[in-house]
Design a protein that fits this description.
The chain is mostly helical and about 140 residues long. The chain has four helices and no strands. Helix 1 runs antiparallel to helix 2 and helix 1 packs across helix 3.
Length: about 140
């Protein structure tokens, strides 16, 4: 009896695990691409279209781990390329899913510089406030 339960459990796991991880991803990326392309074609900006598509893909993915933005963007690109006839109007928007790496690197450097400058300024203000200043000591 115990062997039967183990075999039954193993059989259920073999069927359940692949459907959980692979089937939902394919349909989610297909509809995610449809959301992205329809919103872009409708005149929405890249950011709002991307957020809507990514949140849908992330929600539909299921499983234990959430999908990363780079992977979701790749899935949208794959779907648009695979179904070229259906998404022929969307090819021009695909470049915006992968931003210019040089521009992104420069933006990150600028943000880092600003943070360092802010920390330095806070440190100076803290040091100045700790010093006691006596107006009449001359």
């Amino acid at each position: 009896m115990k062997r039967y339960k183990v075999k039954k459990l193993f059989f259920l796991l073999v069927i359940f695990i692949p459907t959980t991880f692979f089937v939902s991803e394919a349909s989610a990326s297909g509809f995610g691409a449809e959301i992205f392309c329809t919103m872009r074609d409708g005149g929405n900006d890249h950011e709002s279209s991307w957020k809507a598509a990514y949140s849908y893909i992330k929600k539909q993915k299921g499983g234990l781990f959430k999908i990363k933005p780079n992977r979701a963007a790749s899935q949208i690109v794959e779907t648009v390329i695979r179904e070229r006839e259906k998404f022929s109007y969307c090819v021009e928007y695909l470049d915006q899913l992968y931003p210019d790496r040089k521009l992104q690197l420069e933006k990150n450097r600028e943000e880092k510089r600003k943070k360092e400058a802010k920390l330095l300024k806070e440190k100076r203000n803290k040091n100045n406030s700790e010093e006691t200043f006596d107006r009449y000591s001359y």
